[in-house]
Design a protein that fits this description.
single chain, 460 residues, Aminopeptidase, Alpha-Beta Plaits, 4-stranded antiparallel beta sheet, globular, binds ligand BES, binds manganese (II) ion
Length: 460
């Protein structure tokens, strides 16, 4: 019955996602403020059509939250779905083969059934929308087996800063038994996996100031500290030859993982060769005595995200710049605290600055790491759902990405999140030509339906 409903409405499910993808809901850029609101209204309209008990576009100090619910029986478990309808900026726009907000379906090597190309196709509109469509199918066929609540925000890509007070203010409204999220990935199309860990984030901007104006690099060069040279040296010193981060105290709280658990993790299929080939590098690189997978998931990092200063126009201009800047991110692992790490960075960075310059460190938004245990009913339901839809038991894997609100949900609502993601690393989230496989889209819908089924059965 439900399968027939999906079959009969498959094309519309895709067309509606395409409509949503046409709305440029870029949360970071104020120029798109109205579009962000339009995306929220679009979702509200979807919920209205499905016939929920309640749906509202709720204001925050920033972009609004879409909240919807359907309570069928107070005695049944409640699934709270979280997702985000905002997207990353599309630039560099010239590297897109088609418009970032003009979705097109194209076949790729990995997605011979076709993939939808658009900003947000995978992160997170496509994955979030699977939950609406699964929910619609359950409502329409009268097979919804759990109460359902939806909290879909418009500020995930800018740090979810206004969602934290929101969930604190609406604790009662958000009461649930589990949070279900599709905003992560899986190992491969035929290798289902469930994300059991997310890294946290500390993000800082640094400024190194030298002379009070740009100087002639012939007249002054060699005698006056060059802020770009100084900044480069300072950044270089933040890692030693083993790619170990040199900030004192940086590793103090890192939760070391047992040899057994590392051995278990190492069983996940991984090809170093395919990894390098996919991003066109000759070899990977990272912290000594950890594998590539470990470096990208269970170990903290420090990366320069952007660096600028001086003359970057055409030709050569001989200038000794007055200022240099960089944006630096540190991915954190359980139990590192972003505020503490930011402070350690700040103190250390200031302490290593030579007297010839002044430095300023400005913290940006951060986020806490999160872990999901696998010995819970909530995880088991997800595992059974994936096993049924993919025909293979999913592998629990830690991810290197961050979703700051997950730790806040745990702290404020006392709820663990199940990270049931269907994206692939090759889907190019945050990059030009982001896409989402149509196979993954429908598989995701199927798996979500099965999650409600298994979770309600386990909870009986
Ligand atoms: N959905 C991603 C995070 C993600 C992607 C986790 C794939 C695991 C696998 C999310 O939208 C994101 O991009 N998060 C940001 C953090 C945020 C504070 C901007 C990130 O990880 O950089
Ligand atoms: Mn996301
Ligand atoms: Mn993202």
């Amino acid at each position: 019955m439900i399968n027939e409903y999906i079959q009969a409405n498959k094309d519309r499910f895709l067309d509606e996602l395409i409509e949503l993808l046409k709305i440029p809901s870029v949360s970071a850029d104020p120029a798109y403020k109205d579009d962000v609101k339009n995306a929220a209204d679009f979702l509200k309209e979807q919920f209205v059509k499905m016939g929920v008990d309640r749906v509202e576009v709720m204001p925050t100090a920033g972009h609004p939250v879409v909240y919807a619910e359907k309570i069928i029986d107070e005695n049944l478990p409640t699934v709270l779905v979280y997702g985000h309808y905002d997207v990353q900026p599309a630039d560099p726009i010239e590297l897109w083969e088609s418009g970032p907000f003009e979705p097109v379906v194209k076949k790729t090597e990995i997605h011979p059934e076709g993939a939808i190309f658009a900003r947000g196709a995978c992160d997170d509109k496509g994955q979030m929308f699977m939950h609406l469509k699964a929910f619609e199918a359950m409502l329409a066929t009268d097979t919804l087996a759990c109460n359902a609540k939806f909290i879909i925000e418009g500020e995930e890509e800018v740090g979810s800063e206004n969602l934290e007070p929101f969930i604190r203010d609406y604790k009662d409204m958000l009461k649930a038994d589990v949070i279900l999220v599709s905003d992560t990935g899986m190992l491969a199309k035929d290798v289902p996996s469930i994300t059991t860990g997310l890294r946290g984030l500390s993000y800082v901007e640094v400024e190194v100031v030298g002379p009070n104006r740009d100087l002639h690099s012939g007249l002054y060069g060699g005698a006056v500290a060059n802020p770009i040279n100084v900044l480069s040296n300072m950044i270089a010193s933040l890692q030693d030859e083993n790619k170990h981060i040199t900030i004192p105290g940086f590793y103090d709280d890192v939760l070391e993982i047992s040899a057994e658990e590392r051995a278990e993790m190492a069983k996940a299929p991984f090809s170093e060769e395919a990894y390098c080939k996919a991003i066109d590098i000759r070899q990977s690189e990272g912290e000594a005595s950890f594998s590539t997978m470990e470096r990208a998931t269970i170990r903290p990092t420090l990366d320069v995200n952007g660096i600028w200063g001086g003359y970057i126009g055409e030709g050569a201009k001989t200038v000794l710049p007055s200022v240099a800047h960089a944006k630096i991110s540190m991915r954190l692992v359980p139990n590192q605290d972003p505020a503490k790490i930011t402070k350690l960075f700040q103190d250390h960075f200031e302490s290593i600055a030579p007297d010839s310059v002044r430095v300023k460190v400005t913290p940006h938004h951060g986020g806490e790491p999160a872990l999901t245990p696998i010995d819970s009913d909530e995880y088991r339901a997800a595992s059974l759902a994936m096993e049924e839809s993919f025909g293979k038991k999913p592998i629990p894997v830690r991810s290197g990405g961050s979703i700051p609100i997950i730790a806040m949900f745990e702290r404020e609502l006392g709820l663990k999140s199940i990270l049931l993601g269907f994206g692939l690393d090759s889907d190019a989230i945050h990059s030009p030509n982001e896409h989402y496989g149509i196979y993954n889209y429908y598989k995701g819908i199927e798996t979500i339906l099965l999650y409600y089924k298994h979770y309600s059965q386990i909870k009986k």
